[in-house]
Amino acid sequence: MGSTKHKIQRGITHLEDLKVDEFIDIFCNFDQYEISEKVDGSNIQFGIDEIGFYTTREDFGGNRVYDASSYPVSFSTTFLRSAHLALEKNLPAMVSVGLQQGDRIEAEVLFGEFPNVVPYSSDINRIILLRSISGDTDVNSLRKVLIDNVVVVNLPAPCTLDGKNICVAPEQHRWSFSSTTVVNSEDIISNDLRDAITLELIKLKACTDEDKITQLKTKIKEMLLNNMVRHIKSEFGPELVNGGWIEGIVCRHRKTKKQFKVVDKQIFGVVKNFLWEIRNDLTEKPRSVNKVDSFIGQFLKELSESINHPTLGTTQAKRYLRKFGSTKEEIIANLAKDIKFVELCRMWDEFIKIYEQKLEDKLVQYRITRHKKAITVNLGDRTQTFTYNNEIDRRTLQVFSSLFLKLEQFKQGITNATCAEDLIVLLVADKI
Fold first, then answer.
1. Distance (Å, whole) CA 193 – CA 27
2. DSSP H stretches of helix in 163-311
3. CB-based burial of residue 209 (10 Å sphere; 0-12 exposed, 13-18 middle, 19+ buried)?
4. Residues 417-426: pLDDT tens digits?
5. In this predicted structure, what is the pLDDT of residue 210?
């Protein structure tokens, strides 16, 4: 069994993005909402369909995967392969409480100490059961048989020590199943906070100026952040004094199940930009030909400009390719017209040599500066300093090594090419 393609739409709306009437109605009935921590992991879904048990990230364009071995072995898929195996080990228990064909469950995966930005426990990975998306199985019944279960998964995984060479070695991952603690809003909101919000709602109801409306909504959001987010540690992470914090909260109506989230965008964004700065500088894909800042963006721009199609190096490539035909074969043939094969091979070989050296220089510079990188952020009632610790360093080195591999694969592809069409495939195969 391999994988199949499905696509649905989902998402929890940010509080400040709600329409005014909806915003006001929420706080007039806020006692009907339950609140839980918004965890900062990777979304995954699992279930059973006519083919069998699967895991998927189809909301983000992925396929349903029925066998962990169908995931490619790469840094970005290690958590998916491992989580799939952990869930598979518990499949009999889930089936025993009703998981059946047609059921699909949403979960959040916390893999490693820093899945994204917020720190979590480093000694165990977690699959946090969130909700049932389709089918009849009550997610609470799954929680009862899975919560606190610990399973061990053994699998081959890529690793790098120097940011350049990749090896595949056996790894052992410990997994537990969890759920976020849910509390009723009336149990944690103080009378003072309720009165302060009510006062701002009165102003909001009478307001017609868009800028003022935005200010009032932001003020109410800040009240929630200061009282419910900025002084809270994750139940899955370290204490506040050890660097713990949370991204935000999710509020859900008990009857309608309608949800919104309150995220500390300013603080979260600052910390994310810092922790991901090097990785984004290496891999961020340019949105247009006029703004190309990253290493991979510059590399793809050079290749694309060499065949007079600079848009192929941007996120607009898929749309651009539609101009050249309705089938993969037609698109490739049209792009390959008038290309001087030998000359282009020579040119691309030179590009790769240049970019290998550029990447080497960036890696050397990173090694010199990584332990000096730090940022101090105001978290409301305290400040916190963030650094490139061992886990952030490990993930950054993974990106460097993946790019060295990509350049090597490109070089090998040029060596193996026998015609212009082969070169076009190297550039656009993942876009058509």
1. 12
2. 185-188, 191-206, 210-228, 265-275, 277-283, 295-306
3. exposed
4. 999 999 999 9
5. 94
Overall average pLDDT of the 164-170 stretch: 97
Distance (Å, rounded) from C-alpha 208 to C-alpha 195? 22
- Taking the C-alpha atoms of residue 249 and residue 213, their distance in angstroms, rounded to an integer, is 22
**pLDDT of 8:** 45
**pTM for the full predicted model:** 0.91
Spatial CA neighbour of 110 closest among 43, 160, 62, 61? 43
Domain positions in the chain: 41-178, 183-263, 277-431
- Would you state the structure tokens that stand for residue 247, as one six-digit string? 């991204």
Q: What value, to the nearest 5°, has the Cα angle with vertex 226 and ends 117 and 36?
A: 60
Query: What is the rounded CA–CA span in Å between residue 236 and residue 386?
Result: 19
Lowest mean pLDDT among 105-114, 123-132, 284-293: 284-293
Task: Round to whole Å and give the CA distance between 250 and 261.
Answer: 4
Q: Average pLDDT of 189-204?
A: 94
- CA 72-74-78 angle, 5° bins: 90
Query: How far is residue 117's CA from residue 267's CA, in Å, rounded to a whole number?
Result: 11
First to last CA, the chain: 24
Residue 173 backbone class (left: φ over 0; alpha: ψ -120 to 50; beta: rest): beta
Residue length, the chain? 432
- Predicted local confidence at residue 287, as pLDDT: 86
